[in-house]
Amino acid sequence: MVDKIGFQADVSKMLNIVVNSLYSEKQIFLRELISNASDACDKLKYLALTNPGIAQQSGQLKIKIVPDDKNKTLTVSDNGIGMNKDDLINHLGTIAKSGTADFVKNATDNGSAVELIGQFGVGFYAAFMVADKVEIISKKAGEEQAWKWVSNGVDGFEISESKRDVNGTDIKLFLKKDAKDYVDTIYLRQIIRTYSDHISYPIVLDLGKAGEETVNSASALWTRHKSEITQDQYKEFYHHISHNFDDPWMTLHFKAEGNIEYAGLLFVPSQAPYDLFQPDRKTGLKLYVNKVFISDKIDALMPNYLRFVRGVIDSADLPLNISREMLQHSPLIEKIKHGAVSRILKELKKRTKDYDDYMTFWNNFGIVLKEGIYEDFGNREEIASLSYFKSTKSGDKLTTLDEYISRVAENQKAIYYITGDDVKVLRNNPQLEAFDEKNIEVLLLTDPIDEFWTQVLVNYKGFAIKHISQAEADMGWKRDEPKADEGSLQKLTDLMTSMFKDEVGKVATTEKLTKSPVSLTVENGQMSLHLERLMRNHQQQTAFASSRILEVNPYHPLIIRLADMMADEQNKPKVEEVAKLLLDQAKIAEGEPVGDPSFFSDKMSSYILKAL
Ligand code: ADP
């Protein structure tokens, strides 16, 4: 009986993109099929741990490439885990992964399909770049029935019962007219060596009458000595395990010896993956125990803030016979994580020496790494030292906390920061006026995570980390200039406090403003205005008014004048009108909308007219 099943809509779209836009990269189809075959062998090896009979049945694990010159077909075979009917339908006719709709959209919009293809698990479909028909025969380990899957890669596929001696999969490609080269063994050998040398299983090329030849080195790359591995081999291995197409920005290959021994081959991508911020993002590390693949779902291997790291950890000291679930909580895993993290951070530190190079990394992953200052108590200071920020003195570049410290003013005991949504708006915030005048640097922080790490990293190398609202008390700022009369000023701030009681907790004078009459800030230690806005955007509680302060500059001519006007009760309506405009002005400087735009613009026009 033959079942005819149509492709999911997304699959058809994707096939179209893969086949048409990756035209110049055609030969990658082979690496994709070999990569899948290798994964299938990994899975079988794991199954065989608890089921030795299965290992015996399949024999030595290998991948076979069989070109058929006469019929113009190419077959990629493995004796790995195999697929049953459901697997064939679910894995090769639909796209289960959540990001695929994004893929189709992204690839269509910017045509950068090559980089995106692997990230979305479209690997197998690359076969249709060179084949106008694909026939798969597969038998799942432990099952009796084999299945045949046939498709022309256009509308759908057919599935029927079939026969195969042992478990595993044959993928037979009926080569397109312009892809007949892929029966040429010299060409095939070259492609396999270029892209798939790192595969741990033998890749055997069938040479017809001349017999068979193992084309790759067939030993797990991470077990080889560094000196025997070329950059290209590292790169192709990275492609294989990460499903990324970019070059690794960092490659870290090490052997840890001590009370627990393990090897690591870790990579940091040079491009941020599309799902860096998706909550269901998988961990990027594959765990092997003595070269047997165990799982790529051991989240405990890497902290969340290093979720962009890809690679392999292999330890012979982990027990093979415990479940993946138990491994998740194993103290040995915790130790490995600890060691791997400190190596990664050390390597990152080295790379900071080349600013431009490091910025490639920082622009992709800095925002994620900074989560570590908040999350990783033990490495807090080290991660902070790897972090780069905009500041009032950093110009076009970014600065580090250490550079900041090297520039502090005399008597300055703290690193000051301000948070907000946008660097340009922050730079013009009136709150910074006194800092500019006194030549004190301020970090301009705009990422949501900045709100959190600044709460936990209270100190860096002896310097307190403080919001700028705390500077005034620190430094005892006072100015020697004409100032509003104390009594009248008190009356004015009392009036404003009662007028704005729903919007701010209090109205107070400050020494921090030099140019602006007013500015908004918050009580020491309270949620910043930036965080307040972030929370409001997420429909969190909105009653934050009580911690807000409207600061008034007692030296500003406008404030002096308003305070004077308080002496005459008749002036009250005018004073109130101007006070409202001042609050609006403070909001605008903070990057917030004014309360009543039509009131604001009417009054603005009438005052401008008077001035002209
Ligand atoms: P990816 O490899 O990124 O998951 P593919 O489209 O290449 O995406 O493959 C989809 C799925 O099909 C694989 O995850 C695997 O479950 C299954 N598969 C593909 N090739 C094989 C194979 N040779 N043996 C067993 N399963 C396979």
Explained architecture:
By secondary structure, the protein is α+β, with helices and mostly antiparallel strands. Strands 1-6-5-4-7-3-2-8-9 form a 9-stranded mixed β-sheet, with helices on one face. It has a 5-stranded mixed β-sheet with strand order 10-11-14-12-13, with helices on both faces. Strand 18 (459-460) and strand 19 (463-467) form a beta hairpin. Helix 2 crosses helix 3, helix 2 packs across helix 7 (185-196) and helix 19 crosses helix 21 (557-565). The chain is elongated. It starts with a strand and ends with a helix. The structure holds adenosine-5'-diphosphate. Adenosine-5'-diphosphate binds at residues 32, 36-37, 40, 78, 80-83, 91-92, 121-124, 169, 243. Adenosine-5'-diphosphate (ADP) binds at residues 32, 36-37, 40, 78, 80-83, 91-92, 121-124, 169, 243.
Name the bound molecules.
adenosine-5'-diphosphate
> Percentage of helical residues?
25-40%
Q: Could you tell me how far the N terminus lies from the C terminus, measured between alpha carbons in angstroms?
A: 90 Å
Instruction: Please tell me the overall pLDDT.
Output: 89
Number of helices: 23
**Beta-strand residue fraction:** 15-25%
